[in-house]
Hints:
The complex is a heterodimer.
Chain A: H1 2-6, H2 10-25, H3 35-62, H4 73-94, H5 101-117, H6 126-166, H7 179-211, H8 220-241, H9 250-270, H10 285-295
Helix pairs in contact in A: 2-3, 2-5, 3-4, 4-5, 6-7, 6-9, 7-8, 7-9, 8-9
Chain B: E1 3-9, H1 15-21, H2 25-38, E2 42-48, E3 52-59, H3 66-73, H4 86-97, H5 101-107, E4 109-112, H6 114-124, H7 136-151, H8 156-175, H9 185-193, E5 205-209, H10 213-224, E6 229-233, H11 237-246, E7 250-252, H12 257-263, E8 266-269, H13 280-290, E9 295-299, E10 316-320, H14 325-334, H15 339-390, H16 395-425, H17 432-439
Parallel strand pairs in B: 5-6, 5-8, 6-7, 8-9, 9-10
Antiparallel strand pairs in B: 1-3, 1-4, 2-3
Helix pairs in contact in B: 6-8, 6-15, 7-8, 8-15, 9-10, 12-13, 15-16
Amino acid sequence: MQEFLRGISVTCFVGSYVVALLLELTRAMPRVPGRGLLTIVFTVAGLFSQVVYLIVRGRELTTLSETGLFAGWYDWSLLVAWGLALCYLILYFRRPDTIVGFFLLPSVLALIGLAGLTRDWAPFSRVDAVGVWRSVHGLAMVIGAAAVLMGFIAGLMYLTKSWRLKAKTAGGAMRLPNLERLQLMNRQCLVVSTIAVGIGLFSGVVMNLNRWGFVGWSEGGVILTGVLFAWLGGAVAFESVYKPAREGRKIVYLTLASFGFLVLTMIGVLASSHGRTPQPPAVNVHWVQRIGEAKS
Amino acid sequence: MKLQMIGCSHQNAAVEFREQLSFTTEQAKVALDAFRRRFPAAEVVLLSTCNRVELYTAAGGTRAGDEAVATAQEAIPPAIDTVPNRDDVIHFLADQRHVAPDRLIETMIYRSGNEAVNHLFTVAASLDSMVVGETQILSQVKEAYDLACESGSAGPLTHAVFQAASRVAKRVQRETTIHRKRVSVPSVAVGEIIPEFFESLADKTVVVMGAGEMGREALRYLVDAGAVDIRIANRNFDRAVSIASEIGGVAIPWTDLDAALVDADILVGTTSSPEPIVTHQRFTAIEPARYQRLLLILDLAVPRDVDPAVGEGNDVYLYSVDDLKAACERNRQERIRQWPKAKRIIDEETERFVGDIHHRATGPVIQRLKNHADDLKREEWIRLENRLRQMAVGEEALREVEKTMDRLVNKLLHPPLASLRDDAAAGHQHGLVTALKQLFRLGD
């Protein structure tokens, strides 16, 4: 199985995306039976093969002493391309009648092309990579936390507005945005926070792999961030797949609960050494040995 | 002038009470006929809208159709052949609406004479409306008057006062800005309540129940506000089709109302149904299919179309006519600056109308007095002319004498007639008409 996965190359996911793009282009033609399903299948295949390719490549990179993990233009281009392809798939599910693929899939292929052009460029060192991924991690987590907080505030405003509308006291000088706007804000905050926390979690993993060679999964801050991400991802999936969850005040309850998870996460982070001046959590003998072997 | 008004409005009565008293057009016809049978000598106009129920009665003269009424009376219990007083009207209303008279006495307001005229002018000019300046009330006043004319219950005084009310309302519209940016109950509902809930109406499903005047107006505002998916449900399907083709939306069969309720983001109730159409039980049955999607219900009907219990759901927001009062109050404040000017016009018109009515009452007396004086003068002139001709008085001298007699009569009559007119303008406070009739034996 591992051999099979190692055999996945750039050609596999590029081929999948190209087929998906060609299927998209057939929209200009009369109805093609099964086009929608095939488009999804090829896009999912492309995403899967690309993520496998990136994981395999990541594992190989960790064995090299000085080369940073996901620390070059090649990897970054592929990561962004994968993110764009995922966005395309989500948008396709939400509005299959739109032609967002005309714009997103060429962009995905262009980014993979850019990766191909920069493949031979020397990657950054581990130290530099840690700096880059730390910045991404910090920024993403800040955005994620702000989005959760904003969602919480929007939720409170929704409930206040709803209460006032029930009491027939809305309007006048103390006006709040309308319910539909607040509901939309809640949903947007939920999506943005999920994406940001996901990026933050991923970048944190890459940062730690670059820095220590392993991730402290047992650390409270990391566990709770993972739980927060799982909750947010679950909430987004729930409200995307299950239409009734988008109706009424249920989305508000989701964002209010998200704030609860955020508070827990913040407590977990602040109660641990997470996010302070980097200190090795423990001497990783295995990692030191490998660096020594590589130097010799 | 024997005009009186007994009624209640949103100013002094709750919607539940007004619901009990409100009349449909058919019920109003029946009530007018019953009133005429009971008080043949009286005139009556019944104004029944969402926000008010008012009965205008007057001491009338002979009306067209009275003979027919008199014939019909032979088959019914003896009528009270007098002008009804306040208690009579209260008991009549109590019988019609099956409400205890004491409750009516407690709640309903009473106006008579000048105050009744002033009140009607104020109502017709929309100064007493829930949304000041709305124009719907004027057409409702006209409809009430037309119905009274059709049923033969209007008479000289009600003709005069209702026609004057229409004229005064138009003058207020013309000379003030109180009616600019007009906002009726439907316009407040669409223009001020809906934006508290939704960003846009373009992607919303709106269901309108009823295709009457209120439904028509609500539909017009909804279309103007950008609603596209509008479904009109009415018991009379053809009527729904008619207003859908005229204004917009799609008519749906009355039997499809439940399916429409499942899809609805906004429900507007405008029917004249005496019972709620959307009962709690009915809504509970379709609620699971809505998945607690936000539903705004604008119940503009009186009696209400939607059971108040429906509004208790988490994501259901029910606004009845009374709930629009807050928005209406804001509008009232905005228009408050125009109010004194409009009120001055109404007071001025009331005074003029009352003066005219009184003057009209003195007209026949003045005419009879003048005729009486002319007859006397003519008799005396004939006698004097014969004498003077025998005395060989010239034609020129005869004309001078006749002119002198005319001037004498006019000079004698001028002061009493001027006093009579002044007294009429003041509402016959000194009783000069009666005095004149008796002094000169002018008869009735």
